[in-house]
Specification:
The chain is of the alpha/beta class and 243 residues long. Helix content is 32%, strand content 19%.
Length: 243
């Protein structure tokens, strides 16, 4: 099966959300890209584990004709790091407040590499029938932790609609050689990210030899929601890049 996107001489932009969010978190970015004539697909990330979710993304990407730009937010960065590897159609990676792990690293490793993450104290586990647990951010802590630069109303809606991640996924080692070692990458993050400290973002961007790194002053972990324009601008840049 081939996934049909808008006919255009532009790459398909594949957006991968992270934990405690869902595909609508990209709505502002999607609207800007559609206005520019880009084919866009917002993937429903399963949030069941890095290897599992990367396999799911790999299947989605294999069904898209032509060039692709993969964009990952938060844990979605770990997913594109693995799911986009060895796919010759993937021409660029964009990390939006996203994890860019090396092989063997986990999201927890990178979030804890530098001080500043307060995510753990806001999480609420829900036991699953198989003995594992899903994690949610407590609704009363959601805005301060995850979306401080969004309005109180918008953050409340996001908190209600958040999708949980299986607890083990945050400690799961990234299984493969990362795509960012061979695919050009771009990074954007907020200076007040409380999930992944800004120092960790800078470290990952420098290690990946990012073509451009954008730090949004005062931005939260979900800075792209209240400020989709700089995210869309960076994606456009990545989409037009040629070695």
């Amino acid at each position: 099966m081939t996934i049909t996107t808008t006919t255009a001489d532009k790459p398909t932009i594949v957006l991968v959300h992270g934990a405690f969010a869902e595909s609508s978190s990209w709505n502002g970015v999607i609207a800007a890209l559609l206005d520019d004539g880009f084919p866009v697909l917002a993937v429903a990330n399963p949030l069941r584990g890095v290897a599992h979710d990367a396999d799911y993304l790999r299947g989605v990407l294999s069904a898209i004709d032509g060039d692709i730009v993969c964009v990952g937010h938060s844990y979605g960065g770990s997913v594109i790091t693995n799911g986009a590897a060895e796919n010759r159609n993937v021409k660029a990676l964009v990390y939006v407040g996203g994890f860019a792990p090396d092989q063997g690293e986990s999201a927890a490793d990178l979030a804890g590499r530098y001080p500043g993450s307060t995510l753990a104290e806001t999480l609420e586990p829900i036991k699953l029938p198989d003995g594992r647990a899903d994690l949610y951010i407590r609704q009363d802590r959601y805005r301060a932790q995850f979306a401080a630069d969004s309005s109180a109303r918008d953050a409340a809606v996001m908190a209600v609609g958040q999708r949980p991640i299986v607890e083990a996924a945050l400690g799961e080692a990234s299984p493969g050689v990362p795509a960012w070692k061979t695919v050009p990458s771009w990074f954007l993050f907020g200076s007040e990210d409380k999930n992944i400290p800004a120092a960790s973002h800078r470290f990952m961007a420098e290690r990946a030899k990012a073509r451009r790194t954008v730090e949004i002053e005062g931005g939260s972990h979900t800075v792209g929601i209240p400020k989709p324009a700089p995210v869309a601008d960076l994606i456009r840049e990545a989409a037009g890049f040629r070695e």
